[in-house]
C-alpha cells in the first residue's frame, strides 16, 4: 500500500514539474494552457490519490477531491480557451495556411443558437 | 537613479521591520494577558473548539453585528448605483451582460453548483468547530451562484427572496442579542444564554452556531444580490450584444 502511494506521488510530482516547465517554455496562450491543465490535472490527481493510499482513513476524502479535480479542471481550462478565442487571441502558427478551425464550428453553433432563440 | 533610491529605502524599511521581529525570542511563551484569557475561556467555559469564532461572535459579537451592517450598506449602495431605472422599454426582460457559455461549461456548472452550496452550508454550520464561519460559507455559496449566473443567461434570481432571507437572518442576529439582555446571566447584549454543551459537539457553543448560520445566509444572499446586480442590465432596453 505504501509503495503504491509513493509511486503515485512521485508520478504526480514529475507531471506537476513538467506542467510548470511547459507554462514557462511554451510560446503562446493555448499551448501554455494545454501544458498547465493537462499536466497539472494528472499531477494533482495522482499525488492526492497517493496521499490517500498512504493514509487509508483519508482515502474517501481524497477520492472525492480527485473526482472534483477531474470535473473542474478541464472545465475551467475549456472556459479560458474559449474566452481567449472570443477575445481574438491568435494562436502561435508556424504555418500560416493552417486556418482557425474553431471559427467555423463556432459560427455553425451560433447559427443554430439563433434559430433556437427565434423559436 | 530612481530605482536605486527605491531599493535603498525598501532595504532600510525591511531591515528595521525584521529587526523588530528579531527582538521577539523564537518559540517563547508569549501567551499572556488577553490572549491567555481568550485561549482558556473559549474551550473551558463556552465549549467552543474554534477560538477565532468565539472571539468574533461571542466576545466581540457587537463588532460582528457592525460588520454585517457594513456589508448590508455596501450591497445596498452598490444596488442603488447600478440599478438602471425602468425606461420606456419596460416590456423587455432583464438582460445578462455576459455572452452565453458553451454547453460544456453549462453542464459542469449544473454538476458543481449543488456541491458548492453544500460546502458553503457545511462551513457555516461547523463555524464553531472548524476554521471558517458565516462570512466564508456565505462567500462560497455566492461563488456557486456566480457560476450559475455566468454560465446561464436565463438564470435569474428573485430579489424578493433575497430580501426576505437577508431580513430574517439579520433580525435573527439582533433578536438573539436582545434575548441575551433578558435571559443571560449578566444581562448583556449578545451574551450566551443557551446551554454550552460539550466541546467538539455540533450542538455546542450556545448561540454561536445559530448566529453563524444566520450570518452565512445573510452574507450569501447579499453577495449573490451584488453579483446579480453587476451582471444583469435591468430592463433598460439596451441589448449588450448590439453595443
Please provide a written account of the structure.
The complex is a heterodimer of chains A (119) and B (243). Chain A is mainly α. Chain A has one domain (2-91). In chain A, 81% of the residues lie in helices and 0% in strands. Chain A has helices spanning 2-25, 29-54, 59-86, 101-118. In chain A, helix 2 (29-54) runs antiparallel to helix 3. Chain A is flat and about 55 Å long. In chain B, helix 3 packs across helix 8 (207-231) and helix 6 (134-151) runs parallel beside helix 8. Chain B is globular, with a radius of gyration of 23 Å. Chain B has helices at 2-22, 34-44, 51-59, 61-82, 103-125, 134-151, 159-183, 207-231; strands spanning 95-96, 232-233. With 243 residues, chain B is mostly helical. Chain B is built from 8 helices and 2 strands, in the order ααααβααααβ. Chain B starts with a helix and ends in a 10-residue tail after the last strand. A two-stranded antiparallel sheet of chain B has the order 1-2. Chain B has one domain. Chain A binds chain B through residues 68, 71-72, 75, 78-79, 82, 86, 113, and chain B through 99-102, 104-105, 108, 111-112, 115.
Amino acid at each position: 500500500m505504501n509503495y503504491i502511494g509513493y509511486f503515485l506521488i512521485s508520478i504526480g510530482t514529475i507531471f506537476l514539474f513538467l506542467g510548470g516547465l511547459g507554462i514557462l517554455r511554451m510560446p503562446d496562450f493555448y499551448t501554455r494552457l494545454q501544458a498547465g491543465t493537462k499536466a497539472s490535472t494528472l499531477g494533482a490527481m495522482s499525488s492526492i490519490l497517493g496521499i490517500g493510499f498512504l493514509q487509508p482513513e483519508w482515502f474517501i476524502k481524497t477520492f472525492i477531491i480527485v473526482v472534483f479535480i477531474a470535473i473542474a479542471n478541464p472545465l475551467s481550462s475549456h472556459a479560458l480557451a474559449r474566452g481567449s478565442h472570443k477575445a481574438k487571441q491568435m494562436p502561435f502558427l508556424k504555418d500560416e495556411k493552417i486556418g482557425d478551425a474553431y471559427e467555423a464550428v463556432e459560427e455553425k453553433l451560433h447559427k443554430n443558437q439563433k434559430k433556437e432563440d427565434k423559436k | 537613479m530612481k530605482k536605486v533610491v527605491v531599493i535603498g529605502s525598501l532595504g532600510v524599511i525591511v531591515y528595521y521591520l525584521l529587526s523588530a521581529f528579531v527582538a521577539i525570542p523564537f518559540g517563547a511563551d508569549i501567551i499572556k494577558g488577553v490572549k491567555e484569557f481568550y485561549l482558556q475561556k473559549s474551550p473551558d467555559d463556552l465549549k467552543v473548539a474554534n477560538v477565532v469564532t468565539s472571539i468574533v461572535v461571542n466576545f466581540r459579537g457587537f463588532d460582528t453585528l457592525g460588520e454585517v451592517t457594513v456589508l448590508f450598506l455596501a450591497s445596498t449602495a452598490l444596488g442603488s448605483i447600478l440599478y438602471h431605472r425602468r425606461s420606456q422599454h419596460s416590456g423587455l426582460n432583464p438582460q445578462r451582460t455576459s455572452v452565453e457559455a458553451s454547453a460544456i461549461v453549462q453542464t459542469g456548472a449544473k454538476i458543481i453548483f449543488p456541491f458548492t452550496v453544500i460546502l458553503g452550508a457545511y462551513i457555516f454550520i461547523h463555524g464553531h468547530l472548524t476554521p471558517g464561519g458565516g462570512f466564508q460559507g456565505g462567500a462560497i455559496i455566492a461563488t456557486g451562484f456566480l457560476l450559475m449566473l455566468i454560465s446561464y443567461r436565463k438564470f435569474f434570481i428573485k430579489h424578493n427572496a433575497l430580501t426576505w432571507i437577508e431580513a430574517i437572518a439579520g433580525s435573527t442576529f439582533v433578536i438573539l442579542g436582545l434575548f441575551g439582555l433578558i435571559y443571560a446571566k449578566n444581562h448583556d447584549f449578545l451574551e450566551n444564554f443557551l446551554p454550552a454543551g460539550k466541546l467538539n459537539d455540533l450542538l455546542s457553543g450556545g448561540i454561536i452556531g445559530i448566529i453563524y448560520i444566520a450570518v452565512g445566509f445573510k452574507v450569501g444572499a447579499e453577495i449573490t444580490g451584488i453579483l446579480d446586480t453587476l451582471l444583469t442590465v435591468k430592463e433598460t432596453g439596451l441589448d449588450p450584444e448590439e453595443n
